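Contributing new records

If you add data, match the layout below exactly. Sequence lines come first and carry their own label; structure lines follow with theirs. Keep one chain per record. Anything else will be rejected by the validation script.
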Amino acid sequence: MMPSSFAPGHEFVDRYRLIELIGVGHTVEAYRAQDLTLQREVVLKVLNASLAAHEEVRRAFREHIIQAATFRHPHVAQVYDGGQQAGSIFMVGEYLSGGSLEDLLRAGQVLSAEETARLGRDVASALAYIHEQGLIHGELSPNKILFDSSGHVRVSDVALAGLAGPHRHFTTRDDVRYFSPEQARGDIASASSDVYALGLILFETATGATPFEGASAEQMLRERLHGPLPSRPELGGLDIVLAQATVPDALVRLTAEEMTTRLSSVVPDEAPFVKHEAPGPSLLGSFAPVEPRHSVGFRPPTPNQIVSAPRSSPTFAAPPSARHAVAPRRAAPSGIDDLAPVKDGRRRPAFLVAAALLIVLVVGGGLVWKLGYLGSQHTAPSVTGLTLSEASSLVKNDGLKISVTARVSSSTVKAGNIISQSPAAGANVAGGSTLSVTLSKGPAGVPVSIPASIIGQSCAAATSVLAALHLTATCPSSSNVVSATVAPGLVAGWISGGTKNPGAVARGSSLILEVSLGATTTTTAPATTTTAPA
């Protein structure tokens, strides 16, 4: 039995009634709950008390909830609401009853290469969307990949991205199982880290084995610092994509968008992944309808608010449109808390009307202010030369967002860094605005020598070596060749631009790798001549 801070039946802000504890993690306690207003099941996640003690964590949690509530993507779990009660900060989101990928793996299920690629394509597209919004997941794992009642996949816990930060210590193998090499070195997780984690997850999904399985967390991390992912030629095209997604050098690793495209080429159609398993029964019908409750926004905690002494406090509702990012509303004037309670509502109609008008003015005014209609102006900072993660952190305090609109080659700006921005640095921008940026793909046209050592390697291993040199490679079966010197299934040569085995190619080039079929022996019957009798 997992320990929990709240018992079934406990209600948050008179709207969300807890049904059962789902799990306890490093960051939150997750509960299945009923939304008493909309009469639907939801998941309610309460920030752990140890993290809630830090103001910067509370602030980040609020900001992430508000931003994630604007997300609309078919493979990103929806965030509906968030709030605070008696010092406990919580978020409310889509309840997904189909279980997790972790459940499948623990049950010993292994997906085919095609189904794994289909699943990976959907998850990669979700990551690409999240990254475009300026967020990094940072802790992607099979238990963060969930399924709805129809078996469609969702990436969850986007609003929890990076919350634990320096307050969490990673000491066990499970803590670091899906860490990237850069995280192993102590660097902050990046968009490339999410791609690496997905590569490891898909390898495990297709093979049932965990790569880089060390005896300790330290050994597990050490093995992935420089080594490529183990090759599994039986996975076909998926094996190559996984090798490219898990290159140790983050700068030459696939982006989530590129990974989506590569995985799409492995599956024969665009149909989404569906987990073929009947969903569990819903407990929604076991609760009688109640009076609708409402939710209006975060409010700052008072010093005497503690978890053990629940007091109702308003929450905030998710905005109706994905096009508007709504930041936390201003706290209501303190005078509201000082008003005496009304003993008989029927005898105070004037007071109720006044109170209702005051709430509308406070909530509506706060919303309009956050949307910039009352002239909240900021000076656009300079983000050129920064990484996407660095730029997002820089503009967050001003309520701004970053959106990648293009990726181009550059000989002066490091790959992954921002080349240009719009509006320009120094321009006046409204709160909630988006800065459009162009990312560098690194220099193009620089000659790169192709190492002869890729001869005799597997397709996946050779692809990984070439990816580290900023080259892409494929191994189409149509290019397989007969070779008396190279064992079947290993690389026997390469082609670039119609040239066979060039010693060097331009940086960013694509190569076709020729895979050996082995030596073939053809037996020809001796020719015979038949002469007709004279």
